[in-house]
UniProtKB/TrEMBL annotation:
<keyword id="KW-0067">ATP-binding</keyword>
<dbReference type="InterPro" id="IPR017781">
    <property type="entry name" value="ABC_transptr_urea_ATP-bd_UrtD"/>
</dbReference>
<keyword id="KW-0547">Nucleotide-binding</keyword>
<keyword id="KW-0813">Transport</keyword>
<dbReference type="GO" id="GO:0005886">
    <property type="term" value="C:plasma membrane"/>
</dbReference>
<dbReference type="Pfam" id="PF00005">
    <property type="entry name" value="ABC_tran"/>
</dbReference>
<dbReference type="GO" id="GO:0005524">
    <property type="term" value="F:ATP binding"/>
</dbReference>
<dbReference type="InterPro" id="IPR003439">
    <property type="entry name" value="ABC_transporter-like_ATP-bd"/>
</dbReference>
<dbReference type="InterPro" id="IPR003593">
    <property type="entry name" value="AAA+_ATPase"/>
</dbReference>
<dbReference type="GO" id="GO:0016887">
    <property type="term" value="F:ATP hydrolysis activity"/>
</dbReference>
<feature type="domain" description="ABC transporter">
    <location>
        <begin position="7"/>
        <end position="243"/>
    </location>
</feature>
<protein>
    <submittedName>
        <fullName>Urea ABC transporter ATP-binding protein UrtD</fullName>
    </submittedName>
</protein>
<dbReference type="Pfam" id="PF12399">
    <property type="entry name" value="BCA_ABC_TP_C"/>
</dbReference>
<dbReference type="InterPro" id="IPR051120">
    <property type="entry name" value="ABC_AA/LPS_Transport"/>
</dbReference>
<dbReference type="InterPro" id="IPR027417">
    <property type="entry name" value="P-loop_NTPase"/>
</dbReference>
<dbReference type="InterPro" id="IPR032823">
    <property type="entry name" value="BCA_ABC_TP_C"/>
</dbReference>
Length: 272
């Protein structure tokens, strides 16, 4: 697969006072797929995302297309087209959905355009409202949205900035099953035109919506491939529940369509 317009991570290393949090991780993500990073607590998932977005210093290489991101400031990485969500949605709760999107869209406007009186709602904002399913909530204060709707609003606030890549940290944590389904379908739509990289603990969500999966363990790549390939890997099964529980893990990961996996016992909490 061509790497033009792709996110390519090569031999990424992140250390904190001598502790190796990420030790030589390599993977890639492309438009047209929903790419997942999974792993137990402390595996290095969020630290990888932090390094890609400039929040943590790393060595190796992280390229978006032909542009090297490592060593680049957070603001420049955003301008280059990398958007990122956190585990807790960051929205302006006293403002309406529309106002939140308008503020986010303004981050890429010139000073002159901000001074001009605007007529109507920008097409990018209308598109984000429709894509996230928030069109009927445009005048609703963000603070009274459901948990899932707040996450969708934050995704919409990235979409209006027309990013090339979206990095999402546990986007369905705390959501109802219906919200999880809506979020998975939203990510699939977004991925048709953009890079989508998801850090997630919810194994059922991963199984349903991942195109490819990279499993991290102790800062290194443990396994990588399609969902079926990864969930059948004995190394992955052993990491989650130990050798004795490997068969149980495989059964839990291979939930039949239409069923809901009970994965809380192996997916609670987030570590780097």
């Amino acid at each position: 697969m061509t790497t033009t317009g792709s996110l390519v991570v090569t031999d990424l290393r992140v250390e904190f006072d001598g502790f190796v949090a990420v030790g030589g991780v390599s993977f890639d993500a492309h438009p047209g797929e929903v790419r997942f990073l999974i792993g137990p607590n402390g595996a290095g998932k969020t630290t990888c995302i932090d390094a890609i977005t400039g929040l943590s210093k790393g060595s190796g290489s992280v390229k978006l297309g032909d542009q090297e991101l490592l060593g680049t400031s957070v603001n420049k990485i955003v301008r280059l087209g990398v958007g990122r969500t956190f585990q807790t949605a960051s929205v302006f709760e006293q403002l309406s959905v529309l106002q939140n999107l308008d503020i986010a869209a303004g981050l890429h406007r010139s000073s002159l355009s901000l001074l001009r009186a605007r007529r109507g709602i920008e097409p990018a904002i209308e598109s984000a409202l429709e894509e996230t399913g928030l069109s009927t909530e445009r005048e609703t204060p963000a603070g009274i949205l459901s948990h899932g709707q707040k996450q969708w609003l934050e995704i919409g606030m990235m979409l209006v900035q027309e990013p090339r890549a979206l990095l999402l940290d546990e986007p369905v944590a705390g959501m109802s099953q219906d919200e999880r389904t809506a979020t998975g379908e939203l990510l699939q739509r977004i991925a048709q035109r953009r890079i989508v990289l998801v850090v997630e603990h919810d194994m059922d969500f991963m199984r349903r919506y991942a195109s490819r999966v990279t499993v991290l363990h102790q800062g290194k790549v443990l396994s990588e491939g399609a969902v079926a390939q990864v969930q059948a890997d004995p190394k992955v099964q052993e990491v989650y529940l130990g050798t004795a529980g490997a068969a149980t893990t495989a059964a839990m990961l291979a939930v039949p369509d239409g069923a809901t996996a009970t994965t809380d016992s192996i997916t609670q909490g987030e570590g780097a």
